[in-house]
Amino acid sequence: MPTSREYPFVKLDVFTSRPLEGNQLAVFTDARGLSDSEMQLLAKEMNLSETTFILPGDDAVESERGVRVRIFTVEEELPFAGHPTLGTAFRLQRQRGGELIELDLNVGKIPVRFQTDENGLLVGEMTQRDPEFGTHHAAEDIARATGVPIEAIDQSLPIETVSTGMPFVMIPLKDLQAMRDLRFDQRTAAEYLAKTETKFVYWVTRETVTPGATLHARMLFYNGEDPATGSAAGCCTAWAVRNGVLASDVQGLIEQGIEMRRPSFIRIRATRSGESVTNIRVGGHVVEVMRGVALL
Questions:
Q1: Separation of alpha carbons 136 and 134, rounded Å
Q2: CA-to-CA distance for 241 and 282, rounded, in angstroms?
Q3: What is the pLDDT of residues 210-225, one digit of tens each?
Q4: Among 67, 99, 264, 279, which has the highest number of CB atoms less than 10 A from its own CB?
Q5: Average pLDDT across the chain, whole number
Q6: Which residue out of 6, 21, 45, 50 is catalytically annotated?
Q7: What would the mean pLDDT of 61-80 be, rounded to a whole number?
């Protein structure tokens, strides 16, 4: 029989310090030799929201551009995603050490800084691209497109598209009960979003379960639910700071994944100067839970 090609991988839980919580991620630690189609098939084989592939380069290239990393869902390659960025950087930091890991993603260079928290645990914080604020959506249009009752929408805050590399619509709901009752028609929502610059929806409320949390969030997509969405959290950070939900440069916390029993805790902060919001920082803990080898 022909000799198999071996590709080591690890599985991580991201935005948690406890194994089997947070958002799962598979990281192929050296993907050199894999074709685009093989990466996509491996992501489908892993059957997680995202799988990443590290493509190590020479020192000069990595010093200038960062470590090349590609991100795939089960359906497609993404230019950027938050929990894969943090998780992959965590794995590289464990291998290489240092306070700063820079990733060369399709969206550009993303730095992730590491420090030890008050409990002696490693915390990573990525700096995302400066936000782009897009369409303001009418509550009536969102209610019609999603099927969520308009009475559940918190109209004291704007419904707005924001992107730090991946555009999301921020939809504020009134309370936790509205979040628990959340059911929406993804097909009609996709038809509505296709007419805008947006692909995904991020639902948030200012009522939280965890003491000290700033926002409670849910992200439903691909006919499932994401326990932690770092790219959406960056957009949400910009939205929250711009609209007075979170003060400039104050550390905030998003809780997500509560309803699906994968609690995740995303640290957020950003800087506001006038109407401008910059320095979007999203971070949290990561734990390694599995190691394996793919044989192709």
A1: 7
A2: 13
A3: 999 999 999 998 668 9
A4: 264
A5: 95
A6: 50
A7: 94
Judged against a pLDDT cut of 80, whether residue 29 lies above it is answered with yes
pLDDT band of residue 2 (cuts 50, 70, 90) is low
For the residues of 143-175, what is the DSSP string, one character each? Answer: HHHH---GGGB-TTS-EEEEESSSEEEEEEBSS
Known catalytic membership, residue 125: no
Q: Which residues of 254-270 are buried (b: 16+ CB within 10 A; e: fewer)?
A: bbbbbbeebbbbbbbbb
* pTM for this model (two decimals): 0.93
Say if CB 38 and CB 25 are below 8 A apart: no
The count of residues in the chain is 296
| The CA-based dihedral angle spanning residues 207, 270, 160, 210, taken in that order and rounded to the nearest 10 degrees | -20
* Domains within the chain, CATH numbers bracketed: 6-128+285-295 (3.10.310.10), 132-281 (3.10.310.10)
CA distance readout (Å), 162 to 158, 168, 252: 11, 6, 18
Instruction: Tell me the residue type at 72.
Output: F
